[in-house]
Amino acid sequence: MTTNAISHSTAGDQNEELIPRYSLGERANHWLGSVAYIYLLTTGLAFWSPYLYWMAAVVGGASTARFWHPWFGLIFTVSLFWMFKEWHGDMRIDDNDRAWARALPEYIQNRDDELPPVGRFNFGQKLFFWAMLYSVILLLLSGVVLWYTETLPWSLRYVRYAAILIHASVALITIGLFLIHVYMSTILEEGSFGAMVHGYVTRAWAWTFHRTWYYEVTGRSRLKQQ
Amino acid sequence: MSQASTEIIRISGHAGSVPGAGLNREFQVCKLVDTTTCIGCKACEVACLEWNGYTFSETTFNNTYQTMPETAWNYWNLIKFNEHERADGSMMLLMRKDQCMHCEDPGCLAACPADGAIVQYANGIVDFQEQHCIGCGYCITGCPFNIPKFSPEARKVFKCTLCNDRVSVGLEPACIKACPTGCLHFGTKPEMKELAETRAEQLRNVSGFADAGVYDPPGVSGTHVIYVLHDAKNPELYGGLPKDPHIPYSVRLWKGPLKWLGNFAMIGGIAGLAWHYMRYGPKKEEPIPPDDERRA
Asked: A92 vs chain B: nearest CA distance in angstroms?
């Protein structure tokens, strides 16, 4: 650390240089998904508890919310499936991720320099992605049952019973994921929110948080030179 | 029954207590359906349509005397028919007037998220307030009797009101008024319970129906519509009357433990993240050392 601090002046010119991290398509899709999720969260919480029923008023009343909630669910699903198409390669979990997972306490305690270098996405981001993807599949299946709940015959009422539990439980899991995701990408990791807005990160950011990816995109990887 | 019997004692999806609950002593109403004297004339079906302002519409014929397979959003009262062959080979044509049972512990109300869409009056009537209904259909899931029905046009759910509008001004429900055989009775719950038990005893001792009994299921803490059945041990024979109706366990789990667990987790999660930020602060980017070993 001390040597870094001393040499800072000589490296400073490079540190603030911008490199692209998210394409326009990736960013547009991310914000489409976020708008849909925030609508689903607001209306879903209104249906969840009487003490949060007022939240439906914010988006036009509970009847309107009942009408649009499934459609926003479809938008969110499409957005997630698009993310899968774009990112499933980068999200593959490998041995490096398992090493990273073992060092998770260091990450939580912000000792990032003690973690193994990571590629475009770290293990936490990958977990978030896969958990959200599987959640959205379960939410879609149970959601369709709740959407057209009156069309199910009485003999299939157990499908309704299952759907109502699955939808609420999985939605709670996604709320947990959402809270962590928003916290980390807005106030915890400085520079992340901007990356999803304008698409760029600084060299220093990439070097600090996604070192393997930084070497790849800047062509400075020893592996690539071989 | 006076106007005061429509005092509200429970409100669905309502934050806080019910205003004025438990201030008056009230009678609880009850409809008694004696299936053993029903002749299946369907006068009650017509009376229900007339009083509630619905017109008869196209229906489905499925080779029985039944008007349609099950009640509909605009058809709240349906005689269910079942031809039953008894052990001795004799045939019975079972007829049961199906409608909302007005449960003491209503599953529709437990499942409903809309403030004020379902109320339970002190007289026992469970009533939908359609102006507050949001059309989510959770009541359909909560009901153990397959009663609430969704109207795709209105995007709201409807069911039998036990003629609350009539009862509240001292009249009996329209179906009771129309019944020609006297198999339908209306009064207070203790009176109807007593009348039903007397009839069941008569059936057992005089008419040779050893298993005759009264259907007032304890799983939903009793109902405000009760039946006299020839065979109380097999209520399913009477157009699928459930043997042990109760609010579905998944609805109980969802509205009980899962709700508390979820609320605790959400609040705990937010608190945990706030604590993390205060304890460890933001992650900041580090300057790249000029002698970064992997540089070209």
From this structure: 24
Q: What would the pLDDT profile of A11-27 be if each residue is shown by its tens digit?
A: 456 788 999 999 999 99
Give how far A17 is from chain B: nearest CA, Å: 11
> Are the beta carbons of A66 and B258 separated by less than 8 Å?
no
pLDDT at B3: 53
CATH topology of domain B248-283: 1.20.5
ipTM over 0.85: yes
Instruction: Indicate if the alpha-carbon torsion angle B187, B190, B193, B195 is positive or negative.
Output: negative
Give the start-to-end residue ranges of the domains of chain A: 18-219
pLDDT one-digit tens code per residue, B56-72: 888 888 888 999 999 99
Residue B134, pLDDT > 60, answer: yes
What is the average per-residue pLDDT within A43-56?
A: 96
The per-residue pLDDT for range B82-123, each reduced to its tens digit, is 999 998 999 999 999 999 999 999 999 999 999 999 999 989
> Could you tell me which of A177, A64, A78, A12 has the C-alpha nearest to residue B285?
A12
pTM as predicted: 0.89
Q: Is A137 exposed, middle or buried, given 0-12, 13-18 or 19+ CB atoms closer than 10 A?
A: middle
Q: Do B15 and A108 touch (CB under 8 A)?
A: no
Q: Which of B286, B291, B295 to mutate to test the interface with A (most CBs of A within 10 A)?
A: B286
- Whether B178 has a pLDDT exceeding 80, the answer reads yes
The answer to whether A9 contacts chain B (CB < 8 Å) is no
Do the Cβ atoms of B226 and B214 come closer than 8 Å? Answer: yes
CA distances from A222 to A217, B186, B293, B296 (A): 12, 89, 9, 8
Report H helices in B137-256: 138-142, 164-167, 174-178, 189-205, 249-255
B273 touches chain A (CB under 8 A): yes
Superfamily of domain A18-219 in the CATH hierarchy: Transmembrane di-heme cytochromes, Chain C (1.20.950.20)
Q: Where are the domains of chain B?
A: 3-246, 248-283
CB-based contact B258 A169, cutoff 8 Å: yes
- Residues B251, B140 contacting (CB under 8 angstroms): no
The SS3 call for residue B2 is coil
* pLDDT in the model for residue B232: 96
- Judged by CB atoms closer than 8 Å, whether chains meet at A47 and B136 is answered as yes
pLDDT at residue B296 is higher than 80: no
Task: Measure in Å the smallest separation between the Cα of A81 and chain B Cα atoms.
Answer: 26
Average pLDDT, chain A: 91
Task: Write the class of the CATH domain B3-246.
Answer: alpha beta
In B26-55, the residues whose Cβ lies within 8 Å of chain A are none
Please check whether residue B77 is in contact with residue B71, taking contact to mean a CB–CB distance below 8 angstroms.
yes
By residue count, chain A amounts to: 226
